[in-house]
């Protein structure tokens, strides 16, 4: 009887050890869990940007999206590089939110930090040559709005401090109100107005930059990921935009 009891106890002990051995591999190593936390950090910031956009807090949304881009670009914060499609998606949302954001900066103040968001050159090796600039105009005119005037100054400041940049192209766009012909003319006239401003700005700084212009009227409405999140007035504002394309001349 004593031998039988000892045998049963030994059997139960061996089964318990086996159960422990089988459970152990199910736990991920601590470093794996840490890396996973880093890899999704930018996604959480994008979600906060999406929530701010749904609430029409465009400045806050732009800040969140740009912060997410900073995280995506940092190997320590994001060891696993995001896909090109993911980067482009966040770039679009950051640009669109910035176009609709109220100008919270005091008039006349500019900084290199703002250039890093307005004229971001790359994210994780993805070169960015096309930028949406919040230079807005009065309805049906080539006169800058108050917000557009300040962003024109900021663009001039960024071009002044850009390294290795000697050519840009300005592309004017309009909303769909009005005829094709009038909108084509208006988009060209607005690109010319911005070019004239930038030429004078850079000339005062003793700099020369080749600036080309193009107008595309209403033919290229901005592609929106979630069009239902925008009012028609906001969609029109997004389409009344100027794009800047970097063109670096080969040495």
Compose a concise summary of this entry.
Keywords: Cell outer membrane, Membrane, Signal. The protein is α+β, with helices and mostly antiparallel strands and 251 residues long. 54% of the residues lie in helices and 10% in strands.
- Radius of gyration computed on alpha carbons: 27 Å
How does the major sheet shape up?
4 strands, mixed
**What is the name of the CATH superfamily of the largest domain?**
OmpA-like domain
Q: Give me the strand/helix succession.
A: HHHHHEEEHEHEHE
Strand order within the widest beta sheet: 3-6-4-5
Secondary structural class: alpha+beta
How much helix is in the residues?
A: 40-55%
Q: Give the name of the CATH architecture of the largest domain.
A: 2-Layer Sandwich
Residue-averaged pLDDT: 80
**How far is the first residue's CA from the last residue's CA?**
95 Å
Number of E strands = 6
Low-confidence stretches: 2-6, 8-36
CATH domain fold name of the largest domain? 60s Ribosomal Protein L30, Chain: A
Give the percentage of residues in beta strands. Answer: 5-15%
The 3D shape can be described as globular
Organism: Candidatus Thiomargarita nelsonii
Keywords: Cell outer membrane, Membrane, Signal
Pfam families: OmpA (PF00691)
Protein name: OmpA-like domain-containing protein
Please give a structural write-up.
The structure is a single chain. The chain has 251 residues and is an alpha+beta fold. The chain is 54% helix and 10% strand. It has eight helices and six strands; from the N terminus they run αααααβββαβαβαβ. The protein has helices at residues 2-23, 30-54, 58-73, 84-100, 112-118, 146-161, 180-204, 232-239; strands spanning 122-123, 126-127, 130-133, 167-172, 210-215, 242-246. The strands form two sheets. A four-stranded mixed β-sheet has the order 3-6-4-5. The longest helix has 25 residues, at 30-54.
